Amino acid sequence: MNKNILEKNNLRYAVVGSGSWATAIVKMLLNHQGEISWFLRDKKNIAHILKNHHNKVYLQSVLLEPERLKMSSDINEVVENSDVIIFCIPSVYFMSCINNLTVSLDNKFIVSAIKGFVDEKNLTIAEYFHQVHNIPFDRIGVVSGPCHAEEVGMERLSYLTLTSKYIETARILCEAFACDYIKTTPGTDIYGVEYAAALKNIYAVCAGICHGLGYGDNFMSVLMTNAFHELTDFLNVTHPDVNRDVNTSPYLGDLLVTGYSQFSRNRTFGNMIGKGYSVRSAQIEMSMIAEGYYASRCINEINKNFRVDMPIAEAVYEILYEHKYPAYVIKRLTEKLY
Prior knowledge:
With 338 residues, this protein is of the alpha/beta class. Helices cover 49% and strands 12% of the residues.
């Protein structure tokens, strides 16, 4: 399969997932596609969308056109009838979803909109499809921010980076997502944007913990500056790329919006931890997935092979997985920041 796979006419797009980000992506794609396939696990939600024209749980204000949606609770039906499959489910549920897939992925283009890891394997989604399903990187793309689903739903101006091995392929993906309120940029740094997306969630959890403990904006600016340096160091050590510009939106921009935004579920999760919630109680009350929790464990495992100095990521891991007292861990962290 050549690098211009997406240049064929009448590409059929599919979205796998039913959460807020999946719903936002459906909304974006429908600006250009006559119809798209959509895998939703809950048959009741499919019935609700058919009747009421909106997702019953996420982004309820987004008006959907069911006549343009080929919805199914059978992932094999959706994948088989599509050319481009966009995976947009929480990473913690990824394997339970993909384990039901029996149809071939040959001649399919895979796009990851998942900002996390395949937990038990410590692989990003692109790495998983490449290593486990033998899909070459020229048939893999990645969607990265900075972009919150809630603002897409409100049609507030937002920016996306679409990344693939070849810039020509990334540009075609950009055309599929772009509209009046979505500006898109093509890129080729698959590794960098996936790991940056996972790391920024960890740093947003830390920002939330610090906010919950009562730290102010002055400290938060120092924390996020150090987080950016930490992220950069990790990328440069683990996968150096002379063409990577970490000062751009999918790296620095995504870190900032996730660390500061009211819509950031990772910051919200961290804020609850800082205020004294246990991990489990915070997860139950949020009723949404904070990817930073799972990414913290994976990065901790991955970094054992590289030993990059990552005091912020280590602090989050100690609080979430070693159950150390947040106030003590963060106070110790403040001595390492500059």
